[in-house]
Amino acid sequence: MAAIDEEIVREYFEQNGFFVRQGRKYQVQARRKTGGEEIDLLVFNPAWRRGLRKPEFLLFSSELPFLHRAIVSVRGWHTDVFTPAMLKNSPEIFRFVEDGVLKEASRLFPEEAEADAAGLTRILVLPALPTAEPFRSQSVELLKARGVDAIISFRAMLLDLLEKVEVNQSYSKSAVLQMMRLFKNYDLLKDMQLEMFADRPAPARRPRT
User: Fold this and answer.
1) Degrees, nearest 5: CA angle 128-131-134
2) In Å, how far from its chain's centre is CA 193?
3) H or E element, residue 11
4) For residues 178 and 122, is the Cβ–Cβ distance under 8 A?
5) Alpha carbon 79 to chain centroid distance?
6) How many CA atoms lie within 13 A of 113 on its CB side?
7) Cα separation of 70 and 99, whole Å?
8) Helix (H, G, I), strand (E, B) or coil at 51
9) For the residues of 150-191, what is the DSSP string, one character each?
10) Helix axes of 175-185 and 2-15: crossing angle, nearest 10 degrees
11) Each residue's pLDDT tens digit in the chain (209 positions)?
12) In this structure, how many other beta carbons lie within 10 angstroms of the beta carbon of residue 4?
């Protein structure tokens, strides 16, 4: 599943105008990853300009114009919620923010050779945070304390891609976008704007006078 997870992230950033680089094409097993192997994707925004504010911690497409360059770690654990307890007991989640990883990532941005590693945003892609408080806020604080600069949920990315996919276009160069297009074409995916109001009760009818 790692390949499709990373492909979704790649499509999301590319559809929002970023250049995306994947450092490796193989899966690391039976040993700890090296610094470079902890990097799933590197993203670069060619439209970024100096003087912009930093993006918010919870990333949506509206925040991406403020993002310059970033290391992206993809955790496609789709049946999990990143609760405070899970974060405390899963140190592998935070290996992509270690100094060796940042040093390797800086080397892979030759046009930014004079900038230090602190200029890189460290983004974690995850399935979901808790919805209830105080657990949601505690998870956010734990992520920030461990060095994560921003997070993106798979739900946010998929909704953004679904909105951009057009049924009358053939996305033959992207399996992810083509599959979404087919789902929409055969009415297997409802319009997301309609779904937002699907659970609302119908207004009561006024009696005739």
Assistant:
1) 120
2) 21
3) helix 2-15
4) no
5) 16
6) 2
7) 14
8) coil
9) EEEEHHHHHHHHHHH--TTS--TT-HHHHHHHHHHHTT-S--
10) 80
11) 478 999 999 999 999 999 999 877 666 665 666 656 788 999 999 999 989 999 999 999 999 999 999 999 999 888 899 999 999 999 999 999 998 888 888 888 766 544 445 578 999 999 999 999 999 999 999 999 999 999 999 999 999 999 999 999 999 999 999 999 999 999 887 655 544 434 444 444 444 44
12) 12
| List of E strands, the chain | 19-21, 41-44, 69-74, 121-126, 150-153
Give the whole-angstrom CA distance, residue 128 versus residue 78: 8
Number of C-alpha atoms within 13 angstroms, CB side, residue 55? 27
Q: Which residue has the tokens 């049924």?
A: 167
Quick one: 136 exposed, middle or buried, by C-beta within 10 A (0-12, 13-18, 19+)?
middle
Dig out the tokens for 145 from the structure.
């304390």
Phi and psi at 42, nearest 5°, equal -115, 135
**Closest residue by Cα to residue 55 from 66, 70, 44:** 66
Q: What's the token pair of residue 48?
A: 């970024």
The answer to whether the pTM exceeds 0.70 is yes
- Please report how many Cα atoms fall inside a 13 Å half-sphere around the Cα of residue 97, on the Cβ side: 17
Tokens of 105: 């990532």
Both structure tokens of 150: 């921003």
